[in-house]
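Tutorial handout. Part one gives the primary structure; part two gives the three-dimensional structure as tokens.
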Amino acid sequence: MFPRLTHRLHTAAQTPHAQGVLAVVAFLESSVFPLPAEVVMVPMCLSKPEKSLRYAAIAASASVLGGILGWMIGHFLFDALAAPLLNFWHSMPAFEALKAQTGTAMILVLLLTSGAAHLPPMKVVTILAGAVGFNLGLFILAAVVARGAKFLVLGWALQRYGTPLADALAKRMALVALAVIVALIFIIGVKSYV
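Part two.
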């Protein structure tokens, strides 16, 4: 989708400043940036597998902090900042559809699916949570669980299985995304009948 930017981030992942780049990308991804932190984290973990869990912790921490920024944008700056950002990333229709179905349980489900698989994009969910006044403490807890689990599991798996795992993930990403979408539709369907 953004091949030049992706290439530049892959290149940055091989520099002495890679950890800082990872932190910035993970932070911004949760509120305004189009690419996931994995674009930087995976090459870093493959080049230095012994540091994979450290990289995972950096990505998780920065992502949660970025999520708090997204919540604040949604809560305090929706008209001034969030709406233009959502329109720029063509996410306003997804945002409006989610907002129409939002309750505490739905926000938690969205935080977990978004935090684990980017469905829907994390920035949409963080801004939505702030816009609807979702409890900030509960938001932070859910983000820590979702993002922490995702990055730590990914870091551990890359440390243990390395390049074969990265290749398998790249080949099966569409299948994984489809499975998550089906699960989300199922969860939403069950929620609407309960």
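Part three, for discussion. The first helix runs from residue 3 to 12. The CA atoms of residues 157 and 165 lie 7 Å apart.
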